[in-house]
Each structure stands twice: as structure tokens, then as C-alpha cells.
């Protein structure tokens, strides 16, 4: 993508206003907390202290709107406390420019590194640095600076108290995450009726798992319907895929396929009903026709082998979903026919203080010059210091607008930085124009300016999720009214804010162009990581067939690793698509075909996982050799992908050939105990060969033998179009 096109696309993204579900009660609550602190500050200390306390309450409320599963009171307290510390230290050093610049550099660098702990931590840290640049100019003595800091902490306490006293849709975010996961599986079941190998994006399941991580306080108060449903939903997805996939034994048309379509439709209805019940906190109401379809006794006469087992398991899992979604099983789902029991313990989320070592450890792990987070930290530090010096040198006054703008818009990736720069300037222009017009017409005094500032903040909280431009317009109006409450005329804030905002935005954009952290050159690394994780997932599943008594957690762990690697790949591809960089070793076509191949590999592993044996089932000893060969081959293949070589799968091919040669006559005809697993092994090898084809753009497509290289003739597997998003 050229620079002109990249700037055009990111600019359009920044100016887009999206339709989102608004939360007016939450916005009113946050604005009320701001109004309480502003009124108290005006009554007790005057306009200057009121402005400082308003910034504390404003930032505390902003923190609670971030996309985080952590309790909102904790976010408000953390934001208010860290802003208070930043303001006090900033004021103590502001009189000595070199010392303040050193503090600004250290604080900004740490804020940049904080993105290693997640976007919520990074956003709160960056906002604290930006607001500190304003609040350090308000006190006139060290004692006043300490008082302003205490008022900021009090602002955080007020916002946290309002959240506790006036909860709005308690556990709403967790309910939505779990309901979205069930609804996504319902949609998946419907698509499988017409496309038996349809893809599935596991992102809703990943979000539901993240939402299920709880602090100790949350674990004690979690509603019963949120316990266990996610774990059952995780088990349903591979069962749905196995039931529909032709490779598992159900022909494309006929009586068996019709029965499968009926079961999938019933499953979709049950999942949708459970999702709605969880989202709204009501009892599950499943249409009787869907329940009757799942309980039809002639399923065993129509379906045979793996499809019959999948149908039985699906009915049991759906019954558990209904019972847990309705709160019938407060302790989670019952054991399943395979002898395993889903874990119902809470996933631990560290407390607010426990998060400190976790964040520091994540920041330390990112201290590498090639890390995008470290490059972002260095970039934002240089821009903040340069912006502060430039603002001080320009004859406008209030030079902090330039570094404030840069800190607020800069992100670790190109597209967000540039889109936010455009949105901030456009929104600032609109917000200042509206606020200035109101000031000129109404000439508000101290109290009316404060009321207008609260109104602007309330609109910000209401419209925050609709897009950056709307949010930036509200922030601009808020600052104009708030500073007007402190006695500054609009003629002193409008021109300088516009010009210095433009300067800060240009500095941020120039910094990314000079010292970028492009995702495009790292695409091969992301692909290699996903390949190794998917290969490990397939190997762990095969190990369970070789030794059914192995712990079930082994498969679960590698599955989560595979999902994480897949998410990292898709994030990298999305970011690379917006970058003005030519591909380096991986073209767009090769990337798409390689993605399909690795997705196919993960899908086959998922189909095998759907039929994991009971603990007392007879083992398949030959599977362990192929599992080890698969693990070794994918690790070496990942290294080849990173080094821009075409991977080869000799170890896996030889192990599968030996397995075919050792098969008993009945098993060779697909009638033995290990025939199903061996069939999956052939499909795994086929997916690996597809990856080699995708990466080898200089030779014709490879011919994949149905016997996996064994020399013994075998029927070719049915054609399976490759799909994205397994």
C-alpha cells in the first residue's frame, strides 16, 4: 500500500462515526461523580482546585469505560491515585526544566512500556501523563500540589463509590461475553447445515474466557448462570464440527445428512435461547420442537460410528447448557460420558496490588530494541520531550498542548496512531468551534462554565464508543469550559490549542514514519508461531489417543496457545494491510493460502479432539510415534518459515507410512480401532503439504498422495475446500 493510500484509509477510519449501543445510565453516573467533585472543589477551595479535582474525577471515570474485565471501582481508584502521584511529582520538578524533562521522559517511557500489560493499562498510563501536563500548572506551592493530589484521589474514590452504590447492569460485560460466545456457536451450527466445513472464529470464546477470570471478590458474588456455561460451550464447538464434517462419515446427501441438519438446527435454537437468558438474567425458554428433535430415539438407527457418538454427546452438552444457563447447576456442569469433568474453579485474576508485579514483569519482558512495545516507548518519549520543548519555544503559551496531543494519540501500531491523529485534530476543531460559540454568546461565569464542562464530559462518556472524532470533540469542549471556569478567556485557549494540537499530531505522525514498528516484516514470524502452536495442538490430541489416561489439561493448554497464536497472526495481518510497506518475503496471496493451510491443520486437530477416548478406552499405540513426528516436523517447519525456506515434512510422512504398513488387515480397510485416528493423521499431513504449496511459489502445486507416502494404495479422502478461521 502506498503512503498516499495508507494516509487516506487511516484518515477515513479516524473520522468514522459508528453506531453503537449507548449506555446513558452509566454516562449519567460518571458525569454525576464529576459534578460532585467539581461542586465540592468550588465550595471548599475555589475554581483552581475545582478544576484540578475535576480532572481527577474525569480521568477516573474515563478509566472505567476502558475495555477491561477488571472491576470498575478498581480502575477508578488506580487512575485517580496514579494521576495524583504524577501531578505531585510533576509540580515538584516543574520549576527546573531539565529535571522536569527527565521526569517527563521517564514517566512517558514507562507509560509506553505499560502497553505490554494490555491496552487498558497502556491507555490509563498514557492518559495520566497527558493530564499531568495540564494539572502541574495549576498549583502554586508544594502544599497546594499535595492538596490537589488528594483531591484527585478523592475523585477516584467518589467514582468508585458511585459504581458500588448505584450499579448499572451488574455483571453486564461478563454476561454479554458469555452470551456472545453461545450466540456465535448458534450461528456456526446454522452455517454448518449448508456448509459442512464452515469456518469458526474463536474470538468470542477467547473473550468469554478472559471475562471469566475473576478476582477473589468477584468469585464470591458471581451469578450461578455464569458458572460452567463457558466450559460446556468450549466442548460444543468441536462436536458440532465433527457432526457436520463429511470426513467424519456422514455423506453429503441422504437420510443421515438430513438428520444431521435437523440436529444442527435444534442445537442453534437451544444455544440462542441460552444466550438470551444469560444476557438478560432470565430463565431459559427452549421451544419444545428443538428439544424433541434432540431426543428423537431413531438417531442411533440413522447415524453410525463417529457421527452417532457426536450426536449423543451434543444432546448431553446442550442439556448442560440449558441447566447451567438457568442456574440449575450452581457448581457447573455434570461429568460427561467420556469420563471427564470440566473444571469449575474460577480463573484467577490478580488483585489491584497483585497486578503490579505482573505489569512490571510484562514490561521487563518487552525490553528489547526489536519489540514493538519498546519502540513505541522510545518513540513516544522522544515526541513528548520534543513537543514540550517546541511548545515552550513557540510564542503561544500553554505549550503543553503539543506533547499532550502526541501522548494521547500515539499507539504501538501505525493505523491507530495516524487515524487518531486525524480524529483528534478534526474533533478538536469541532469541539472548540462549538464551545467558543457558546462562550461568546452566553458569556458564562464560573458556575455555568462548570456545568457546561460536566455536560461535555457526560456527552463524552455517552458517545465514547461511537468513534474517536466524537470523543475528541467532547474532550475539546470540556477543556475549554473547564479552563474558562478557572478564569481563562476563550481567546487565550482557542488559537494556541488548535495550532499546538496540529504540531503534536504532526510530531506523532513524523515519529512513526522515522522510527516505525511495521508488522509486515513480522508476518512470517507470526505464521511460524501459529504453525508450531497448531502442530503442538494436533500432537497433544494424538497423545491422548495413544494414552487415554493422560491429563485432559494438556490438550486444553495447547489449544489455548494455538488460539493465541492465531489471534496474533490475524492482528498482524490486519495491521499490515494498512501499512505503506511492501511485503518482505510473504506476499498477500501466499499469506492467504498459508493461513488457510494452518487453519485446516487446526481444524483437523479439533475434529479429532471431538472424539477423545474415555480414560478406560483401549489405547492406539502407533499414534504416539506420529504425534512426536508431527511435533518435531512443525517445530522445524516453523523455523524454516522464519528463515524464508519452504518447509518439508519428512518425519511426519515417514511415521505415517510406518503406521500404515503396521496396520492390521481390518484396520487397513478402515475397520479397526485406530482407523479413525489414522484417517485424521492423513488429513493433518495433507494440511502440512498445503502449507508447503502456499509458501513455494516457484514450483507447480504438489500432488498429495492419499496414502501419506506409504506405497500402499488407499482411497483418496473427499475433497475439502480450505477455509479461513477454523
UniProtKB/TrEMBL annotation:
Coiled coil: none
InterPro entries recorded: Memb_transporter_dom
One Gene Ontology CC term in the entry: membrane
Superkingdom in the source lineage: Bacteria
Occurrences of domain Integral membrane bound transporter (ranges): 388-510
Pfam families cross-referenced by the UniProt entry: FUSC_2 (PF13515)
Region (Disordered): 325-349, 697-726
Bias (Basic and acidic residues): 331-341
Subcellular location per the Swiss-Prot or TrEMBL entry: Membrane
Protein keywords: Membrane, Transmembrane, Transmembrane helix
Topology class, membrane: Multi-pass membrane protein
Protein name, per record: Integral membrane bound transporter domain-containing protein
Protein species of origin: Streptomyces ruber
Organism lineage string: Bacteria, Bacillati, Actinomycetota, Actinomycetes, Kitasatosporales
